[in-house]
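ok trying this again, last paste got cut off
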Amino acid sequence: MFKPADLFDLRQTEHVKIFEGCTDAWDALKKLKEYISANLKPELRNRCIGRVYIDDNVFIGEGTVVEDGAMIKGPAIIGKNCEIRHNAYIRDYAIIGDGCVIGNSSEIKHSILFNGCQIPHFNYVGDSILGYKAHLGAGAKISNVKLTPGNVMVEKGGVPFDTGLRKFGALLGDFAEIGCNAVLYPGSVIGRNSVVYPNISWRSILPANMIVKNKAAQEVIVRRPRET
């Protein structure tokens, strides 16, 4: 399930060439800097609301709106009809597809977003690839660096596999849903149409069409007045 076509509808990005020759989808992250450097033609076709900062080395498509307080540090390629909302932060080799939402206090770094992604509230996405219409709930984070030394490992065929990446967050297949305040650890792979419930810390592989639920017990008691 690690091939690009296993996770992503490759028709839902204008940058399908970056996946050519990639045995595993995360290999595209190794090519990201070179690809953007070769294909970026800086131009701003967007509309701004309020005061924003946009670096010189950025392309933004028509119909995209960038709201007050947003900062976009290139190199970056941003598609058409996106919403870059108040205080969003986009930096260091990012590709954002058409119709995406990057919301308040959300940060995108060295990542690829297919069309229709939503990163709308207090999110962090680093060194990751998010498929068509993938969605992060408020406060969801994708961690991209191990606490211990060495490259990020992924279990492949039941055996730890070295991705060759010191920084690697997650692969989210098309229509993946990540609940509020969930955390995805480095090297997580979420299959198409799968769901991770809120407040879950997830590591490893989740196949397509699965749901991860939080089984933590909740206690309900009678409310009594405090003694005075």
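PB: full thing came through this time. The chain has one domain: 4-212.
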